[in-house]
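Exercise 7. Predict the joint structure of the components listed below.
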Amino acid sequence: MKKQITIQPAKGKLGILTPGLGAVATTFIAGVVAARKGIALPIGSLTQMGTIRLGKRTEPRNPRINEFVPLTQLDDIVFGGWDVYADTVYESALNAKVLDRYLVESLKDELQAIKPMQAVFDKSFVRNLDGTHIKTGATKMELAEQLMEDIRRFKADNNCARLVMVWCASTEAYIEASLVHESLDAFEEGLRNSDPNIAPSMIYAYAALKMGVPFANGAPNLTCDFPAMTELAHKMKVAIGGRDFKTGQTLMKTIVAPGLHARALGVRGWFSTNILGNRDGAVLDAPENFKTKEVSKGSVLDGIFNAELQPELYGEIYHKIRINYYPPHGDNKESWDNIDIFGWMGYPMQIKINFLCRDSILAAPIVLDLALFLDLAQRTGLSGVQEWLSFYFKAPQTAPGLPAQHDIFKQLSKLENTLRYLMGEELITHLGLDYYEELEKEYEALLQVTA
Ligand SMILES: NC(=O)c1ccc[n+]([C@@H]2O[C@H](COP(=O)([O-])OP(=O)(O)OC[C@H]3O[C@@H](n4cnc5c(N)ncnc54)[C@H](O)[C@@H]3O)[C@@H](O)[C@H]2O)c1
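Solution:
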């Protein structure tokens, strides 16, 4: 039965706040501003360019997603953020060298007006950065309160009806969840005591949730993926999602691997190496930060090739990931994958993928879609982990004990069916037997007429 869910209209301005105004965030902002001016298309964004099939295959109902669900329009977005450097978005976009200078110049007025707020930063989590545009406070709780004040001020100054926050700052050093992350009480005690296991990204997430602002994590840090934070999300009825934007090599992996698995082809090894030369690459050059990324990237294949179910095909996979900092390439990451597969009677074959991508060009539309969909979730009353957005993440956050879905096609189907569900449309299972049952009836009727 169709169920219509109440969705509050997207009235008024939506403020998109990003901790981190580096390559990804500035490319995202510049792209939205350029799209508003009609200079460029928001390519790669499902909310802006994607269509969705509704009803039967024989019905011509394939609206654009942004015409089907009530999303905030690009003209109603306002941008804000924090960074450890005081550069405006215009200066930061020029530094990042992702976009052509003439394009950035053509957006100068809008980009220059966006100045970062002072960051909550702790060098022990990102040792390869030396910013000075940083808050000071006696405790981590005090820093969280300062962020809440920033959020309040931003909302009032920009006349925003709603806000969302998307973490676009550097990858933090690897830590595992510990006692301080286990409950909200323990976490708040830890904030008051400045517990060293509370990373800056967690302080931003805490401040956002306390202010009722949905939060997505674009980096592989723990950030909002531990019990204290999901407890807070439920308590405040706020939507959250993470972790780590799925771009570049991992995007390719989750496109290719489901195909090999679908045809029951074996995989013996998957070697992935990258070179990139942006600030993200410099941060990931520190082993403790690389480890965070390695763990996030590494889980992808395990989720698609379930070795326990098919040990003869996937039991021996050797999966190796390397990221190398190579300044001459800047943001234009180059990745190589060597995949050792085997087929009928065990005969070996190889696949080589050389992807010359642009990291931030792939990540920017994800920031936009996550912000717009999280805002939709919030207006729909969905709170806690939004697993239907796992399409956008390398290491999707799920309910405790629930294995993540990594196959990009299943993730897309989950996302589309969630939109259909919210709008009271039939879910699509791709069974398709009904077409043939109808055909059968037509043949029978024909036989009766001709008999
Ligand atoms: N580009 C991609 O394809 C991609 C994919 C997945 C994840 N990511 C992640 O997205 C994040 C951003 O990537 P990027 O290429 O824009 O990196 P970047 O280095 O260009 O930008 C990150 C910015 O965050 C700032 N920063 C660091 N710590 C901060 C803090 N505590 N508070 C506020 N600002 C802080 C830095 O000064 C920097 O300007 C990284 O964590 C990266 O790993 C990027």
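Discussion. The first strand starts at residue 13 and ends at 19.
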